[in-house]
Amino acid sequence: MRKRVFIFLIAIAALGVSASAQRNVTPAIDRDPLLEADALHNLDVAWQAFGPARKAYKQVLGRFEETYAAYPEFSKIDEFLYLAGMSSYYLSKNEGKQKVNLKIEREREKYDPQKLREDAAAYLAMMLERNPESKYRENAEKVIKELKPAE
Q1: Which of 28, 75, 128, 144 has its CA 20 to 30 A from that of 117?
Q2: Which domains does the chain have, with CATH numbers?
């Protein structure tokens, strides 16, 4: 009987030690599954709009702004920042199939080329800060270097 109690106590102690050793030191971010699913959908639509067939950079920015305003903790926000940065960059050069009309006041405020260049650099820098090992790193660094004013 004593031997069983002793073995039981050792087993309990071992379980307690292993459980505490496995405890996660850095708490995980609680992600809302509904917001995560909605943001993932927006990212998918943004990728489709960004692609070579559509080049709808205004649409990409709209999806990004909507997602970032509602859910900045999105698990793939760094990927979205890349799309927003590159879309801003391309729009600043008036590339893409959705042209900017600077004669319209609302478009002039939102899509001013200088503002778009600043936004592109900020989005790409934020992307690199959040995910320095990003697969888009090389391209982002190249664009950021190009956007820096000559000294």
Answers
A1: 75
A2: 32-147 (1.25.40.10)
